Amino acid sequence: MTSTASTFTFRPLDPREDAELLHGWVTHPKAAFWMMRDARLEDVERAYMEIAADPHHHALLGLCDGEPAFLMERYDPARRELVGLYEPEPGDVGMHFLVAPTDTPVHGFTRAVITAVMTHLFADPATRRVVVEPDVRNKAVHTLNEAVGFVPEREIRKPEKRALLSFCTRKRFERAVAA
After folding, report:
1. E-assigned strand segments in 29-116
2. pTM above the 0.70 mark?
3. How far is CA 86 from its chain centroid?
4. Of 71, 75, 109, 138, whose CA–CA distance to 152 is shortest?
């Protein structure tokens, strides 16, 4: 997998068909901040069946040159994840992403993935701002987020973690990727 000449595409996640693949990703030590390290296969399938049934939360499988390489979740932060924790604005879209673990990391690949995810989200003209809430301890993702234009606003307390609430407008993203 190379990040410079790779083609990224997205397809809806199939909770039954993709559960085994996802299970290997979310239980991997590098996915500690995904908080599913102890999940059983049926737990992963059930979690993604719930997402598939939710009109305000969507999971997509990201492909690199046709091969599964990452997971992306898109959600409505006014209805999921951040309800009551900030004042949502029209056009806000929440996002999570997870890159598949690999024994042969490619320099720049994760940044290419987050850029593809953001490009996909902003392809929807209704998306005005992307909202993320990673664990405050996840310094690597904070660096990636800043690289694509996210600006941290403040720490928030979620039931499962202390999170860094951050926002990225279309204009900030476009400036960041043009630099």
Report:
1. 57-64, 67-75, 92-99
2. yes
3. 19
4. 138
Nearest to 95 by CA among 76, 70, 119: 76
The confidence score (pLDDT) of residue 6 equals 84
Residues 127-178 pLDDT 10s = 999 999 999 999 999 999 999 999 999 999 999 999 999 999 999 999 999 9
* Pairwise CA distance, residues 145 & 44, whole Å: 26
The set of residues, in sequence order, having a beta carbon less than 8 Å from that of 155 and lying 6+ positions away, is: 136, 162, 163, 164, 165
**How many angstroms separate the CA atoms of 108 and 33, rounded?**
20
Q: What is the pLDDT of residues 108-127, one digit of tens each?
A: 999 999 999 999 999 999 99
Asked if 75 and 16 touch (Cβ cutoff 8 Å), the reply is no
Q: Are 60 and 11 in contact (CB under 8 A)?
A: yes
**4 has pLDDT over 60:** no
CA distance 31 to 67: 19
Length of the chain: 179
Q: How far is CA 143 from CA 26, 66, 95, in A?
A: 21, 27, 16
